[in-house]
Fold this protein.
Amino acid sequence: MTRTRNTFLVIMITLALSGWPPVFGQAETGPDSAELDTLAQLYDAVAFDHAAHVEMVEGNCARCHHHTTGVAPTNPKCLRCHPGGQEADSMACKDCHSEKRFESAYLAEIAANTDRFHTDIPGLKGAYHRNCLGCHQESGGPTGCADCHARNEKGDAFFSSGKYAPKSPQKTSGH
Amino acid sequence: MNQLVKQGFSPVVSHRKKDGSAWTVKEKIFLGLTPGDYFSEQFRNPFNWILAVIYAVGLPIIIGRFIYGLGWVTHSSYDYPWGLFLGFGLFTMVPLSASGFMMGTTVELFGRSDFKPIERLGLLNGLLGYLFAVVFLQVDLGQPWRLIYPMFVSLGPAAVLFLVAWHVATYLSCQIAELVPAFAEWMGLPRAKKFIKSIVLGLTIAGIILSTLHQGALGGLFTYAPGKIHPLWYSSPFQWFHFLCSAIFAGLSMLIVVSTLCKWFMRWRCDENFLNSLDRLTLGIAKGAALALITYLAIKLIAVAHDNEWQYIFTGWGQWFLLEITIGVIVPLILFTMAIRNDSADLARLGAFIAVLGIVLNRLNTALIAFNWNLYQDIPHWREVVICITVYSTYIVVYRAILARMPILYTWKE
Amino acid sequence: MKKLNRRFFLKGGMAGTALLADTGLAKKASAADTFGGYPDSMGVLVDFTKCVGCRSCEAACNKEQGLPAPDKPFDYMSVFDERHKGQKRRTTEKAYTVVNRYNIKDREQGPVFRKFQCNHCNEPACLTSCFVNAYTKTKEGAVIYDPTVCVGCRTCMIACPFYVPAYSYSNPINPVIKKCIMCYDTRLKFGRPPACVEACPQEVMTFGKRKDLIKLGHNRIQKNPEKYIDHLYGEKEVGGTAWMYMSDVPFEELGFNTHLGEQPIISYVKEFLTIVPMVLTIWPALFTGFYLLANRKEAFKNEKPSGNE
């Protein structure tokens, strides 16, 4: 039983970018849209309007992609090593932000590689949420969970909500 | 009963009836009365009617506690895991029962045989207090049937409560043994009495060790909660000594209170030896209690000074603390001193009564009132109060039943 | 108590006592032999600046631990306004972790959300206070317990400085202590993080070896000194805890007890525990001596004819 529960949690957190074309020729503007869907266990896939977001950041890809697109990052600390102008091998989120942030293999790799500077980077799910939600909070974008990804039935069960909501509120134990 | 005795009835004091035949155990249980007379006597006693009312309300609630769980009788507080059952039942019953080891020590160890008339009352007060502290504990434990777990199933010897459990258990056995002579006399088992006589010094010293440790350990239990208990009631180095030292005067005061109640309400059962020496003994005990009180007062103030808590004295908590010290320590101390100077046992009795109330206040303060002092106050559930009253009533009933029968207040005539 | 009070003094800004307090602490620390925790034990670093209060961790905990259905759905944010006797929500027999909202004055980003669960102390007060030895501190860092031996004395609830353990009062047959076990049975044992850590969309929590997390936390503070309070709560509190916290607002504003001191709770109890062997060994001889002294006269009186004592 726990196994199933674990599996769907793992799946829930491993937000993969399926349909993200690894074609770097498009790097200037990126794909028009992308589907972020591995949260599908609890949430429906996010229909991400990349083009609209490119417009919103006025072409400053570094706003989301840090230094990877070759655009100089905004954070002066990052600028010291990533001054801009140099496109990274990959600009897909998941190539730096591990989907397996909390798996022991990843933890061991981080611990073993003493040369590595970025030892404290968020996993893929964290990167998405912090990046999107952080910006949405600042710029007044939607911030509710279901504003970006509709919750499915499994999600309702997970949150004991919707048709899985507790029927009659039991008497809570005192404190 | 007092009336019956006035009319010429004499309760059992030896194995032989006036006509020379032996009392049967059944007759001894009915105090030498016929069952009919005995029960009509019980019905006549107004105190029994009060008890009947208490049981009518209390027994169903005690049964309910075991059917519906602790959540039904308490507020199920996670912040106040200990309520009245322990705050009152355990933490005040135990110090008030310290009279057992005090009287044992005085008579058997220091050879003060002049205290002999009240020794057994002291021992019985000790035994019953502990017994009912355990009853209270059993009401409070989530799974009372696992009480033996710390003894035999899964041992946590580094925990203070482990010490309490073992010491209270062994001390209970110790006290039962110390009271075997009274039971043996009543039942007519001279060999049992003789055996206990031969080991009484060992029992007494064991009693001192175990009492020192578990009275102290009850204080030690609270050292687990620095910051939760108000600093004025908390002292890491002295907590155990506060509890031990206050238990000494608490036990002695309780003995004075109980002996006074016996003198008033169970006069028929007291013999001349007890009644005639009681005033003198009361003053003697008051002397001991006064010494303990002044030691306690000093060490209490030293604890405040040691942790430099004078700042708290001027807060509301400080005033509450001073009130407790005044009622529970200074007033009894003054009354005891005046009693000893003026040779007035009644003054000592008043002092003892106040000291008992003071110790109840102190233990409730430590366990409940000053506990979580920076969180919120928890007022116990009414069912919790009812259960406490019911269990305490049972304590009184058992106490009274034993006093009425066994040679505690009177001397058995062989 | 000494340390606690000195802490209060410090707060009051009495600089003179600060020096005293430090020397006192140092002496205490060397006197008591404390257990610093297993070297490779795991921990969790919680960064409150990232929490958005979605309560996914509460839901994940509920499912992972097979706890009863909550009173309200996990997506109800109204629970943040619940108060019980003036207190925010705490851990209960039905919830091993809760998130609370703290409205901080003049904080641009709005309120701070604080996740709360067992801190898994290096030297747990609950463990040391348990008279049936139900608790275990595993080498992985979790403080777990064996409910089959729990008697229900609730001393661990008294002892826990964080008010974590709850009790299933409502169960008359088998009431036991209930608290977070860091998902030891299902996850931690296999090197995986607790369910709440994985469920968090914001990755508020970082899972790793405790000693690495301390470095990482300080590193994070060092890189963003303007953002974080320069303190890892739990690094040293009551002897160190497996769960540690970083915040951009002072910890006391998030309901943390900042007066706990750095000594594990057991060090306050040791003062009593040391007298136990003394009483056990000294009392018998001492009081036998008293007996002999007190009864000397009588012995002489009674036994003069035979001439021996």
